[in-house]
Amino acid sequence: MSVEIELPAGWRPRPYQTALWRYLEDGGLRADVAAHRRWGKDDVALNWAAVSAIQKPGVYWHLLPEAAQARKAIWEAVNPHTGRRRIDEAFPPAIRTSTRDGDMSLRLANGSVWQVLGSDNYDSLVGAPPVGVVFSEWALAKPEAWTYIRPILAENGGWALFLWTPRGRNHAVRAFEARSRDGAWFTLRSPATETEVFTPTQLARERAELVAETGSKEEGEARFASEYLVDFDAAAPGAYYAILLGEAQSAGRIGRVPHDPALAVHTAWFYRRIFTYSACGANFALLGAIILRLHDPVALKWLGLALIGANVVLGTLYLAGATVTDWAKLVAAGRRDRA
What we know:
The protein has twelve helices and eight strands. The chain is an alpha/beta fold. It has an eight-stranded mixed β-sheet with strand order 3-4-5-2-6-7-1-8, with helices on both faces. Helix 7 crosses helix 8 (217-227).
């Protein structure tokens, strides 16, 4: 049975945040949440850190990918609905004994310390080991940060909360999919279509504006799918063919095709053979003509070495896959550069 915990500022989770909050209240130690923009991920994290810091004195970290980002997004952030700083709402001044702007840390009356940090320099984090860590914007953070911090939390029984919005199929997605099969983890994938943050009309407007802003229907749709629909396979900006690959995946046209030794495999190098053999033959013919007409042994030696070296280069290009068309492209490129 869940135990109702009174928050310092009277904050309450929204309905779609309740499952995560209840898991944490019940003593859960590992949670991974992939959610859409404006879900309130950092609000949940700040208030849970406040509850934990009051209940169990210790050090608590709120990590963003970069320290500068942490200052703007958390330390100096203001709730637009109330006009108050978010850290003041989660950690009311009445429960604090000091506020240090330099290192973005708060000290509570019971001795707990809460601090905002960047995970980009994870190996330089110093001080007492944390008993609770939030990885905000986890998809943009260095995955090595968790590798560094995980043994600390395993030793002291601390908790970790991962909050993010997809940025292509990267480490965050791979970790989430593995954790979703692990009973020790709470995982939640929360698209905007399953919360009450945006109406269908607002979502349609966001989709249209992203398409207009990017100047590309494919890129705008991919951004919308990633940031609002929490689509793990949405195309990352600049990725080629990702939309088509996503459609192929959805249609079941991508799968494993094992090698069948009963089927012969042929490679055709016809044009490369003609080019390479012709060039080498011309070189040998030229070498023979020079030997017949030139009597200076030093000159013969260097000319011969030069022609043999040319054949070695041609043979290497043949093995690398170069054809006469590749040489034509190089010549054309050189002419454009001189124009």
